[in-house]
Amino acid sequence: MIDIHTHISEYEQSEIYPIIKRAKNAGVKAIISASTTINSCKKSLYLSEKFDMIYSGIGLHPMNLTHEINQETLSSLENFSKTSDKVLTFSEIGLDFLDNMPDRKIQYDAFREQIRLSIHLNLPIIFHSRNADLETLRILNEEQAYKVGGAMHYFQSDINIANRVLDLGFNVSIAKPVLNNSKLQKTVQQISLNSIVLETDSAPQPFKNNREKWTEPRHLFDISQKLSMLLNCEISEVQKVTEKNSSNMLFGRLKYTI
Description:
Elements: E1 2-6, H1 13-26, E2 30-33, H2 38-50, E3 54-58, H3 71-83, E4 87-96, H4 104-121, E5 125-130, H5 133-142, E6 150-152, H6 159-167, E7 170-174, H7 182-188, E8 196-198, H8 220-230, H9 235-249
Parallel strand pairs: 1-2, 2-3, 3-4, 4-5, 5-6, 6-7, 7-8
Helix pairs in contact: 2-3, 8-9
């Protein structure tokens, strides 16, 4: 299995090796460490160079935009990609229309500029969308993001949005909400396994008092197990197909053979 979206770089360094060990024991072969700021890009790159199974995503999360994106920032992102062949995605970028988020013009401009750069660098986009699905998809279409494709991160929308995502040439990325969200489960049953990739969005969760309950890449097993039940197929088939989907989405740049 491939975890196409985590924030593993936010964990303490002492946590990384045990997390990787647990992930391997669960059948995870590769983990992508997504970024949210320039600093987290640097952390993700560091981890990807230190650990064979960790790869990097570069990008600025809409929640973390403090000012209009400028050429210096774009140049930094481009240099990150050229520094390491383990940079596999542009993530996490997109739009977030919750209250108290950065100015929408800043979000729109940053999203468009990063899509353009992703196309220039030939990196698939793992995009964030919160309360902004139609606008996010509109921008992706206008900027011709289908040239590189990617996935809708942490998918929790309805089948109409799923079909729009698929029509645009993107995959839907399924995470832990599918374990308990009955509405999402019904939607997933209407999506072809050939269009699904897996993620955990792992990050430290100190609000959970029990450390054992923190989401980690190892939980891909639970997600794939639930999908096998929903789609009425063997868990091995879910793992095989989603791994192939992820590898294809990443243009075959993972350094192992499926």
